[in-house]
Design goal:
Blueprint (H helix, E strand, L loop, with lengths): L2 H30 L3 H27 L21 H26 L3 H31 L3 H11 L12
Bound molecules: fe (ii) ion (FE2) (2 copies).
């Protein structure tokens, strides 16, 4: 497999693990504020990110490629209001989407059709991820401007359950 594609996939493992770390940090922020539904939402999000990292690792393993685990940066945000983590999460998902596109481009250049096929799932997944956070931001803006609305939204987010990825390698 192409060196550049291999490096980018390894870096993507780190980015997915950092995403998990970032969402754990956000979950902790909401937990400390007694917003257990928001905490749950981000805990589920963390599980999703771990599953993304595992999928890429599995893909590399299946193709006999060495997996290189690098250090995961500590999240460095100081949140000052309840909408801020949502907005940062949205920005972060856009960044991850760009990162997937970069690997996609490299795989196209290398005519690595196997990796392209693998990445197709991630392209769809990123569209879903951006949509989910964007919807949450819109709901927050519409309904969470008072305590009662925030309570209702928090109750809704408490019902989110983790579903394993549809992609099986
Ligand atoms: Fe992800
Ligand atoms: Fe994500």
């Amino acid at each position: 497999m192409d060196k550049k594609v291999i490096n980018l996939l390894n870096e993507q493992v780190n980015k997915e693990l950092y995403s998990a770390y970032l969402y754990l940090d956000m979950a902790n922020y909401y937990s400390a504020a007694n917003l257990n539904g928001f905490n749950n939402w981000f805990m589920v999000q963390t599980q999703e990110e771990l599953s993304h990292a595992k999928l890429i690792i599995q893909y590399l393993q299946n193709n006999n490629i060495d997996v290189k685990l690098a250090s995961i940066n500590a999240p460095s945000f100081t949140f000052t209001d309840f909408i801020q983590p949502l907005e940062e999460a949205y920005k972060h998902e856009k960044y991850v989407t760009e990162s997937i596109y970069t690997i996609y481009e490299a795989a196209q250049e290398a005519k690595d059709f196997r990796t392209l096929k693998f990445l197709d799932w991630f392209v769809d997944e990123q569209a879903e991820e951006e949509k989910n956070v964007d919807e949450l931001i819109n709901k927050f803006k519409l309904f969470a401007s008072d305590g009662k609305g925030l309570y209702m939204l928090d109750s809704e987010l408490a019902t989110r359950v983790y579903t394993p990825p549809s992609l099986v390698l």
